[in-house]
Design brief:
Blueprint lengths: L6 H38 L4 H42 L2 E2 L6 H14 L5 E5 L6 E4 L7 E5 H6 L2 H17 L1 H29 L14 H29 L1 H13 L2 H11 L10 H4 L20 H12 L12 H7 L42 E2 L2 E2 L7 E2 L2 E2 L4
Parallel strand pairs: 2-4
Antiparallel strand pairs: 1-2, 3-4, 5-6, 7-8
Length: 401
């Protein structure tokens, strides 16, 4: 595959790889069908392994059209109801401009600047700092953010996060990831079905199999189990590949939309290790801005580490890394209050003069703040007053008469 240069060529290259990976997922479905046929043949007759493999291959050829049709029906159902399922799992609710004008206007401005159709906007009542995009077509596309994200990030950082998720929609990442999760679900369903059949049905030897030899069923079962495990593991790896490599492009796309790499870096630093959504499935977390994993679990992470993403933005977008950020708890933020341009909340203005300082900043016409000594009766704001005398003009005293 030819090397890709620039953001848009990387996007096109990534789309081609995604299509190839999804075709690979269909191959895994057929592999699961073959493993299931091998288990069925081994449970029905204790024939030699090579005979069982040939029989399973014939069964797979006959069952392939049915497996393809079943997978397509599964995808069609998920295509229609995937967004409703995600909303049910996360508890997300759609909001309007009237309900969330700040968030709505930020997203609308990004869409207008690039001529992008406005996706739906949804909010999850969760203290975690995260967001994700979902949907399979323009009617379904939506961007969901948590209340924790809205409380902890400023407008520049929220705009960067929205740009990140909008880029996932522009690049087709959301559609590819949802389809990959759907097909991976098919593989998981087949694997569970086969294992349940194995452990509930046991082994039955056919009376007519004595002329073909004995002892091959156990080996065939072992081969089927290995194939199922390989198919399941590869489906997980493919899901990771679809998600992990795209986060860098989404970060870059956000910078392209907002022209503000520092905002994206600051948002990532605030979200870092604070994005775990309570009760959400792994499939939902794979769609989020960050899918935090630590220790051994990091081997199965669907997102690059925040450190690597920030380093890429610093190196290629010219951003500045403030390092890991510590955020005050929401209760502490409410107690401290927001900083005011007129001073701290404790020393705020009196209720009768809500927007005025306690003392006038300058004295006008001899009036001075109470804290300053009053000038003498002969002084004005520009110095000592001249004693009264005959009126004078520009060339000296005026003489009358």
């Amino acid at each position: 595959m030819a090397a890709a240069y620039g953001l848009y060529s990387h996007i096109e290259s990534n789309k081609r790889r995604s299509i190839a990976l999804l075709l690979g997922l269909f191959f895994l479905v057929y592999l699961m069908v073959f493993a299931g046929a091998l288990v069925a043949e081994a449970m029905s007759r204790n024939a030699p392994v090579d005979w069982l493999l040939r029989a399973a291959w014939r069964d797979m050829i006959y069952a392939a059209p049915i497996a393809t049709l079943g997978t397509l029906i599964w995808i069609a159902i998920a295509y229609r109801f995937n967004q409703a399922l995600i909303d049910a799992v996360t508890g997300a609710g759609e909001v309007t401009r009237k309900e969330e004008p700040r968030l709505y206007n930020l997203l609308e401005n990004l869409c207008i600047s690039r001529g992008i159709p406005m996706p739906k906007l949804k909010i999850i009542d969760d203290p975690a700092l995260n967001a994700f995009a979902s949907g399979l077509n323009e009617k379904q596309y939506s961007i969901t953010v948590t209340t924790g994200l809205l409380d902890r990030l400023d407008d520049r950082e929220i705009e960067a996060v929205l740009g990140h998720e909008l880029t996932h929609i522009r690049n087709g990442d959301v559609r590819m990831l949802v389809i990959a999760v759907i097909i991976a679900g098919v593989i998981g369903f087949f694997a569970e079905l086969i294992f349940r059949t194995m452990f509930r049905g046991g082994f039955r030897s056919s009376s007519g199999s004595s002329d073909r030899g004995k002892g091959g069923a156990g080996i065939a079962i072992l081969i089927a189990v290995v194939l199922i495990a390989v198919a399941w593991a590869l489906s997980i790896v493919i899901r990771f590949a679809l998600s992990r490599s795209r986060e860098y492009l989404a970060d870059a796309g956000s910078v392209e939309l907002t022209k503000d790499p520092d905002a994206m870096i600051s948002a990532l630093r605030k979200i870092e290790n604070r994005g775990e959504l309570a009760g959400s499935t792994s499939a939902v977390m794979e769609m989020c801005v960050d899918n935090p994993r630590q220790g051994f679990a990091d081997l199965f992470a669907t997102h690059p580490p925040i450190e690597s993403r920030v380093d890429a933005l610093v190196r290629y977008a010219g951003g500045h890394d403030p390092g890991p950020l510590s955020l005050p708890e929401p209760d502490d933020m409410q107690e401290q209050g927001e900083p005011s341009p007129w001073g701290s909340p404790e020393a705020g203005p009196s209720p009768d003069r809500p927007f005025l300082p306690p003392e006038p900043p300058v004295s006008i016409g001899g009036a001075t703040p109470p804290s300053q000594p009053s000038p003498g009766p002969s002084e004005g704001p520009w110095g000592p007053a001249q004693p009264p005398g005959p009126p004078s003009g520009p060339w000296g005293p005026r003489r009358d008469g």
